[in-house]
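The material for today's practical consists of a large collection of protein records. An example says more than a description, so a record of this kind follows:
***
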Amino acid sequence: MLVDTFGRVATDLRVSLTDKCNLRCAYCMPPEGLEWLPGPDLLTDDEVVRLVAVAVAEGVTEVRFTGGEPLLRRGLVSIVERVTALEPRPQTSLTTNGIGLAKVAGALAGAGLDRVNVSLDTLDAQRFAT
């Protein structure tokens, strides 16, 4: 089990798959932009799955994929498929801004993704721009 110094047992894991995003929200993207992590500094798909497998072996039962925008991760569907094949199988979810979700929703469902959280600040384009 994963237990912190206060005796709390960790049963959920948040995995950030990328630092990149396809939006420029004012609260997380400064006007001068950000310096993205170089590719070699990111975990490979195999490393992500191995990390999750270790956590699941230690009692993690829920895995949430985030980013930046996780839909920008090229190996996303494969990662989800491999994580949902672990024993015991963790519940899996994805937090996304929803852009591009229509293109991969079917593949993610087929890979075993249990839940999607779409974060929307507004449906009003003018409000979003300000």
Notes: Residues 35 and 115 are 31 Å apart (CA to CA). The beta strands are 2-3, 9-10, 12-16, 62-66, 91-96, 115-118.
